[in-house]
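User: Could you check the structure of this?
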Amino acid sequence: MTKILLAGSALIASMSAYSEPIDSVQLASSEAIQIQATFKKQADSINQVLKFHSGKLRFSDQSIRMKVPDGHYFIEPDQARYILENIWGNIPDDEVLGMIVRSDFMPSNINNDYSFVISYAPIGYVSSENQKEFDHLELLNNIREQLQEANEKRLELGFNALQVENWVMVPYFDEYKKALYWATEVNVNGSDESLVNYNLRLLGKNGVLKINAVGTMDQLPAIKKILPFILSQSEFLEGFRYSDQAEPVTSEDNWQLEELISGKQQKSMLSAFPKPIAAGSLLMIGTFFFMRRFSNSKRKPGKTTA
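Assistant: Sure, the predicted structure tokens are below.
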């Protein structure tokens, strides 16, 4: 890294977009030191009160159950949102269900590995009938175009502009699992770090489970290794599964798979996740990329599960 970023910020793969390079936010050394000190104090405070869960999870309101992988912990919704929004500077998102993190995770630790943000979008039944091959170039261009407006908003908030470079994994729909995958390479103006934003959408009868991982490109193998386990241990409860829809819904109002990737419905031009920057696929960048590791203590999970 050769330049300094302002506070941590959010990236959405499903709503990511592109614009011509915009000047990044840069700080003087004294400003960076002050921000580091403030960040460390705030992050150290929550380090002391974080509650970690392991084992089986059940989200009753969303009719979803999951299992936390070995070597990882789950952070409950309120504390996950506090980290994402107050510590890392992301836009508020009430769809966040929590985070899955490595067992040595600490908010103040620059050397944290990837994190998985778990959320749910109650957008109804997503039609996969008559699914044709994805037009990868068109989808990538759609993603890039949408970031034009998002980057303007980011700059207003003091965050650096994002550039979606290319596919890391082209969109793929698993018909058997009813799961949609895609991943993009992202650059942040003011940084020479290359990042990966990996997206998974598991379709349900009434909405979509969103699992998003963000990390540096060298963490991609680890992300790809653990994600299949998370998917295999995540499911909608009986009566709320995609297959529980008696007859496929083919209304024009239903979301299509391509629209989940590009982040908007073509007819309504509305965002699939109606926030200027959705927290469903967060990019934990910014402050972490110019701070040194503060600590790396091992955590113990709570006695109860979420």
